[in-house]
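note to self: dont lose this again. the chain is below, predicted strucutre after it. 216 aa total, dont forget to put it in the shared folder this time
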Amino acid sequence: MSLASFAVEMRAQADVESILDLVRLAERLKSELRHSWLSSGRRESVAEHTWQMALLALVSHRHLEHPVDIDRVLRMILVHDLVEAEVGDVPSFEVSARKLAKAETEQRAIARIRDMLDPATGGEIFALFQEYELCASPEAKFAKALDNLEVQIQHNLADLSTWEEIEYGLVYTKMDRHCAHDAFLRDLCGAVKRDAEEKMKAGGVDVEAVKRKLSP
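---
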């Protein structure tokens, strides 16, 4: 074997090992639990949240007022919570030191993930994560909207006893701003919100009182 061939072989082996290392890391997302519960009564994993987001993207993207590159959206969804394999999931309403440090710890984690892989693959994952975080592109805005919609859809499917009281008000505040830029997303948001209201009313929650608390 020539020196050049040997170098190619070694590079290929290194790439194989780095891919396997990433998959071993990402496997943790199957057991990393979120603050969302399934209709079956167990908590949702990060991996399940990611899958449902991807399904939402696939079935809804053709209806958007503003078209997106669905391939890029799906790739972005795949990596948007990858850092949680290292740093865990932090609920949006949590008040804690780890919540304050969330952005910084996630940036360190995505840099480590980038450096695990070959430059092209690691660079792509890193760029997709940053694009999602900045939420400036049409694809990132769509993905961010679906992230928030999926949370509420899953809450609507779970028993109301799994909701924190603070989450009653989030029905009216968490989704809207991420869906405001597109007519179809606004319609989808409205339908998800109506489902949530019906669930709360059926569970004895005073929906009008919840709304009054949100008024200035």
